[in-house]
């Protein structure tokens, strides 16, 4: 019996120490990173709050990024392997934009947002024309985020990922803070027109607009195109029914005020056939910075030639000539 008891105790200790040894050999290969995004300096409209965001982690020496979609654009917790990463954050996702497409996705410094749906423009030094302005875009970039060996396993295997806004997140979870800024620029064009009452529709083109922007650096491409936009919002001068201003607001990837630009106005008049044209070369450009850090450009112009008076298409149908009526004939009407 003593021998059996001794063997039982020996087996117990063997199992105990072997289980301890297995725990020590448990290796963690990932670290938990909490992403915090502050959009207060992005200059994005309130409409953008309903969209999420995208974070791209570019491992050093590799081409393909790790793509993390954030349903809540303010934060998310992810796990990364040991290594060095370049990080890009931008609003929405690659497929959520209406008028923006992306290229150079395999390199963070070449990742570029460009105008979708550009068309060749005949007989123009600028080979492309954008018929729609790009959506709002904001981004941030962090270089050389290092996940070290001592960061691995900073989470409990039984605990799921926690939100970046969860105050219970332990100190062992490392935080990545990003502050996106605007990558598109806002332009407002206002044109003073005499004879504005004769205009049915009006469109403008603005040359020398940047074709794209690099998300990491925020630098606009040197390649340019022509941006097309509609003039709306007619506002008449006080006590005038013929003179006032028409304006438009839109976004571009870049606009260099020091470079010469051409603004062309083309309007269809109310007669449905006459076209009024005006060109502006020496434009008055004003740049202002809003409280959120967004740069806005204003272009104010005056049409030197009044819009001609034309007769509206159609008419009232009440232009019959009395001389065309037949001779008067009196008849009795039975009641």
Features of the shown structure:
single chain, 335 residues, mainly beta, Immunoglobulin-like, ten-stranded mixed β-sheet, five-stranded antiparallel β-sheet, 1 helix, elongated
Characterization of this structure:
The chain has 335 residues and is mainly beta. Among the domains are: 29-97 and 136-181, Carboxypeptidase-like, regulatory domain (Immunoglobulin-like, Sandwich); 185-302, Sandwich (Immunoglobulin-like), CATH 2.60.40. It is 7% helix and 42% strand. The strands form four sheets. Strands 8, 9, 13, 14, 16, 17, 18, 19, 20 and 21 form a ten-stranded mixed beta sheet that branches. Strands 3-2-5-10-12 form a five-stranded antiparallel beta sheet, with no helix packed on it. Strand 20 and strand 21 form a beta hairpin. The radius of gyration is 33 Å and the shape is elongated. The N and C termini lie far apart (137 Å). The relative contact order is 0.15.
Rg over CA atoms, rounded to whole Å, is 33 Å
Helicity level, as a percent range? under 10%
Q: What's the β-strand tally?
A: 21
Q: Which CATH first-tier class of the domain at 185-302 would you pick?
A: Mainly Beta
**Distance between the amino and carboxyl termini:** 137 Å
CATH topology of the domain at 185-302: Immunoglobulin-like
Sheet having the most strands: 10 strands, mixed
Count of DSSP H/I helices: 1
Q: What's the helix-strand series?
A: HEEEEEEEEEEEEEEEEEEEEE
**What CATH architecture label of the domain at 185-302 applies?**
Sandwich
Beta-strand percent range: 35-45%
Poorly predicted tracts of residues: 20-25, 158-169, 316-327
**SSE class:** mainly beta
- Average pLDDT works out at 83
Shape, principal axes of CA atoms: elongated
């Amino acid at each position: 019996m003593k021998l059996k008891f001794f063997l039982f105790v020996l087996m117990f200790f063997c199992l105990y120490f072997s289980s301890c040894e297995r725990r020590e050999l448990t290796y963690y290969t990932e670290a938990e990173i909490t992403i915090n995004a502050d959009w207060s300096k992005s200059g994005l409209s309130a409409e953008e709050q309903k969209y999420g965001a995208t974070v791209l982690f570019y491992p050093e020496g590799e081409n393909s990024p790790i793509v993390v979609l954030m349903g809540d654009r303010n934060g998310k917790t992810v796990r990364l392997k040991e290594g060095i990463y370049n990080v890009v954050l931008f609003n929405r996702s690659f497929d959520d934009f209406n008028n923006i497409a992306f290229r150079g996705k395999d390199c963070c410094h070449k990742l570029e947002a460009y105008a979708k749906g550009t068309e060749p423009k005949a007989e123009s030094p600028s080979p492309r024309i954008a018929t729609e302005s790009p959506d709002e875009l904001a981004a941030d970039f962090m270089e050389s985020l290092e996940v070290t060996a001592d960061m691995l396993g900073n989470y409990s295997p039984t605990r799921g990922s926690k939100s970046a806004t969860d105050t219970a997140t332990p100190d062992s979870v490392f935080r990545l803070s990003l502050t996106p800024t605007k990558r598109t620029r806002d332009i407002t064009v206002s044109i003073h027109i005499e004879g504005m009452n004769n205009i049915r529709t009006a469109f403008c083109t603005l040359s020398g607009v940047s074709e794209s922007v690099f998300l990491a650096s925020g630098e606009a491409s040197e390649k340019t195109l022509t941006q097309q936009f509609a003039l709306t919002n007619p506002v008449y001068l006080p006590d005038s029914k013929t003179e006032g201003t028409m304006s438009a607001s839109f976004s571009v990837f870049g606009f260099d005020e020091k470079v010469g630009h051409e603004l062309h106005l083309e309007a269809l008049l109310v007669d449905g056939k006459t076209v009024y044209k005006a060109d502006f070369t020496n434009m008055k450009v004003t740049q202002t910075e809003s409280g959120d850090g967004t740069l806005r450009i204003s272009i104010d112009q005056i049409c030197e030639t009044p819009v001609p008076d034309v007769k509206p298409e159609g008419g009232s149908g009440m232009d019959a000539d009395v001389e065309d009526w037949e001779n008067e004939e009196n008849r009795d009407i039975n009641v």
